[in-house]
Amino acid sequence: MTEQPEHPEHSGHSEHSGPSGFSERDVQREVSELEQRSTTAARIFDLRRIIGGLFVLYGVIVTIVGITDSQSAIDKAQGVNINLWTGLGMLLLGLFFLAWLKLRPTPPPVPAQPEQDAAGPE
Predict the structure, then answer these.
(1) How many Cβ atoms from other residues are within 10 Å of residue 94's Cβ?
(2) Dist. CA 85–CA 35, nearest whole Å
(3) Left if phi > 0, otherwise alpha if psi is -120 to 50, otherwise beta: which for 78?
(4) Which of 11, 46, 86, 92 has its CA 20 to 30 A from that of 35?
(5) How far apart are CA 94 and CA 72, in angstroms?
(6) Taking Cα atoms as reference points, which of 29, 20, 8 lies closest to residue 111?
(7) CA atoms of 50 and 102, how far apart (whole Å)
(8) Residues 4, 25: Cα–Cα separation, whole Å
(9) Residue pLDDT, tens place only, 24-56
(10) pLDDT for the residue numbered 118
(11) Residue 12: left (phi > 0), alpha (psi -120 to 50), or beta?
């Protein structure tokens, strides 16, 4: 049973093809595509985005609770509307994280340099 190349445009007769039938150019293209996907995943799952988003969400909820608190709830906290102040603080912290993400985005990874032969040119 013979293996078919993954890419139909690849004939397997390249001067740089290895035992698998893929040329170095095919391998380099695959590696660069994987690096690009990895960069996208790193940006999506940046902790600043997750932390900032959660703090903004919880800050909105706690701020709304603080605005609608009854006088008895405020009296329990010795006259301080603790939900309102905590919610506003959470909102500010969440917005700080999201602004930090916007101002200093995750840098793309530096492509690996091919290793140089220690012996030098022959």
Answers:
(1) 20
(2) 44
(3) left
(4) 11
(5) 29
(6) 29
(7) 13
(8) 18
(9) 888 888 877 877 777 666 667 788 999 999 999
(10) 53
(11) left
Q: How far is CA 95 from CA 89, 91, 106, in A?
A: 10, 6, 17
pLDDT for 55-107, tens place per residue?
A: 999 999 999 999 999 999 999 999 999 999 999 999 999 999 999 999 988 77
Work out the number of other CB atoms within 10 angstroms of the CB of residue 37.
Answer: 10
- Is the Cβ–Cβ distance between 35 and 76 less than 8 Å? no
Residue at 36: amino acid letter: Q
pTM: 0.57
CA 8 to chain centre: 33
> Tokens representing 9?
């445009």
Q: What Å distances lie between residue 79 and 9, 86, 111, CA to CA?
A: 75, 14, 58
- Residue 54 DSSP symbol: H
Choose among 54, 122, 56: nearest CA to 91: 56
